[in-house]
Design a protein that fits this description.
The chain is an alpha/beta fold and 229 residues long. The chain has helices spanning 20-35, 42-56, 63-70, 78-86, 96-107, 120-130, 154-164, 183-188, 218-227, and strands at 7-10, 111-116, 138-141, 171-175, 191-195, 213-215. It has a six-stranded parallel beta sheet, with helices on both faces.
Length: 229
């Protein structure tokens, strides 16, 4: 029987590392900056950002706009905030199990891709900080295709398949977010694995949004991937 599934495509945030590492360092930088532009303390601003983030989720697009509105600060400060957010410098770490999986896939001669939504400069910065470029044969920042072509659009998945010179039936996609990660991939015929950890672990929005396989952790995901050969 031929080896059909020899391409693995990963989501980035909350799959390969703990995204909160990045957010909370960014919040510190932003709070320090805004405290110098206002009468509000660094601690107050940082704590509000953290609380709003927990309440509204990482997918909420207007976190910083709302912060400026709530504190009656100039909305023109948003440009500076976004620059601070996309240029964070911190020592991000892969999950240990993610590092082991990526090394295993390399040793087993899989093609390995990364497909991520979000601001391109921010996502590039995360990849740089994680020092993971060498693990991947292709990295696709979906927003470069246009905001409307980010996951769950099939265009994002087609782009990474093209970059890997892989067919859908040869690929498995590993993600964690049912809102964005599985609909487009399944439509193309890519097998999907949902990692049931992190921010979206309790979210269930219908069968169409679920993956073909479920894994409680990356060790389980690794076993599913290696059995697919």
């Amino acid at each position: 029987m031929p080896n059909l599934r020899k391409t693995v495509i990963f989501d980035l945030d909350e799959v390969l590392y703990d995204e909160k590492q990045y957010f909370y360092v960014a919040f510190d930088r932003i709070a320090d900056f805004l405290s110098k532009q206002s009468n509000f303390s660094r601690e107050e601003i940082r704590d509000k950002l953290g609380a709003d983030f927990q309440k509204k989720s990482s997918m909420y697009p207007n976190l910083f706009n709302d912060l400026l509105t709530d504190y009656n600060l100039d909305q023109n400060l948003l440009t500076d905030i976004l620059t601070l957010f996309s240029t964070v410098k911190t020592n991000l770490k892969l999950y240990h199990s993610a590092e082991l999986l990526l090394k295993t896939l390399r040793n087993e001669n899989f093609k390995v891709g990364l497909l991520t939504n979000g601001n391109v400069e921010t996502q590039r910065n995360k990849v740089r900080l994680l020092k993971i470029e060498d693990y991947f044969d292709a990295i696709v920042y979906a927003r470069q295709l246009g905001a409307s072509f980010e996951k769950p659009s099939t265009q994002a998945f087609k782009a990474v398949l093209s970059a890997l010179s892989s067919k859908p039936e040869e690929a498995i996609y590993l993600g964690d977010n049912p809102y964005t990660d599985f609909v487009g991939a399944k439509e193309l015929g890519i097998k999907t694995i949902r990692l049931m950890s992190g921010e979206f672990r309790g979210v269930h929005i219908g069968l169409a949004y679920e993956a073909d396989f479920v894994a409680d952790n990356l060790e389980q995901a690794s076993r599913i991937i290696l059995k697919s050969q």
